[in-house]
Design brief:
The chain is an alpha/beta fold. The chain contains 9 helices and 14 strands. The chain has one domain: Acetylglutamate kinase-like (Carbamate kinase). The longest helix has 25 residues.
Length: 294
């Protein structure tokens, strides 16, 4: 049985105060994981981004593309290498990363948004000097020796004027996280898309950072989606990590959210990109989805 006309009207009425709240504000969406593989989900994300733009939200899309990079490397006879869950990026791999992220994946996403009726501008960190990065230090966060990840960079500068020019022209900037070197450094660097999204959100003074992932959010029990934690205060995050509730692949995402909130972003959300139109449900409904870090 379909939704009645009255129910549709109620849904739209519920969205009104949220549209008014976020109109003119900046929201950064990081897109990756399984939601990028499924064609119908990709189309739904594009439609969500267009609607957000149409109601006056300044929307920036930052994307990954790990599965596509892996597939291209294997087609070229090169097996992907990961160290501690992070991609080792030698010169040859960096060429593939730049080709796939800034080329194939970026332009496919631009095309999807435009076919949905929006205006999108594909960028990577090299364009206009948008992202400048230094080679990631081999030292661990506690000063201990860390693994050499090759041409993996840490962002040291975001030139917001590049994004502001796109946003001011009514475009959705679609950003591939390939960064240029600092100063006279001629190299390009592969930058973690979660971290890049947080740095871009901070630089823009974003209202929200939304991470579209392939999990429902932070769960107390990984085997039970019913144990979703809907809201976590920033001050509680370390305890969740120490207690093992946040572990493995979720740790970098939580660290990204913490980085954003510490840098002045209003709220960060981890939401399930496998659910169609999860962006709209999060932004424009009372219930919301996923986990919010405030």
């Amino acid at each position: 049985m379909g939704i009645s006309v009255n129910d549709k009207a109620a849904i739209l009425a519920q969205a009104l105060p949220y549209i008014q709240r976020y109109r003119g504000k900046t929201i950064v969406v990081k897109y990756g994981g399984a939601a990028m593989v499924n064609e119908s989900l990709r189309a739904a994300v594009a439609e969500d981004l267009v609607l957000m733009s149409c109601v006056g939200i300044r929307t920036v899309l930052v994307h990954g593309g790990g599965p596509e990079i892996d597939a291209m490397l294997r087609r070229l006879g090169k097996e992907p290498v990961f160290i501690g869950g992070l991609r080792y990026t030698d010169e040859e791999t960096m060429e593939v990363v730049q080709m796939v992220l800034a080329g194939k994946v970026n332009k496919e996403l631009v095309g999807l948004i435009q076919r949905a009726g929006g205006r999108a501008l594909g960028l990577c960190g090299l364009d206009g000097g948008l992202l400048a990065a230094e080679r990631r230090s081999k030292a661990g966060p506690d000063g201990s020796p860390g693994a050499d990840l090759g041409l993996v960079g840490e962002i040291v500068e975001v030139r917001v004027e590049v994004l502001e020019a796109a946003l001011g022209g009514g475009f959705v900037p679609v950003v591939a996280t390939v960064a240029g070197g600092v100063g006279s450094d001629p190299k390009s660097y592969n930058v973690n898309a979660d971290t890049a999204a947080a740095d871009i959100a901070i630089a823009l003074g974003a209202e929200k950072l939304l991470l579209l992932t392939d999990v429902p959010g932070i769960l107390r029990d990984l085997r039970d989606d019913g144990t979703l934690i809907k809201e976590i205060r920033r001050s509680e995050l370390d305890d969740y990590v120490k207690g093992g509730i946040v572990s493995k692949g979720m740790i970098p995402k939580v660290e990204c959210c913490a980085r954003a909130v510490d840098g002045g972003v209003g709220r960060a959300h981890i939401i399930d990109g496998r659910s169609p139109h999860s962006l709209l449900v999060e932004l424009f409904s009372d219930a919301g989805v996923g986990t919010m870090i405030s």
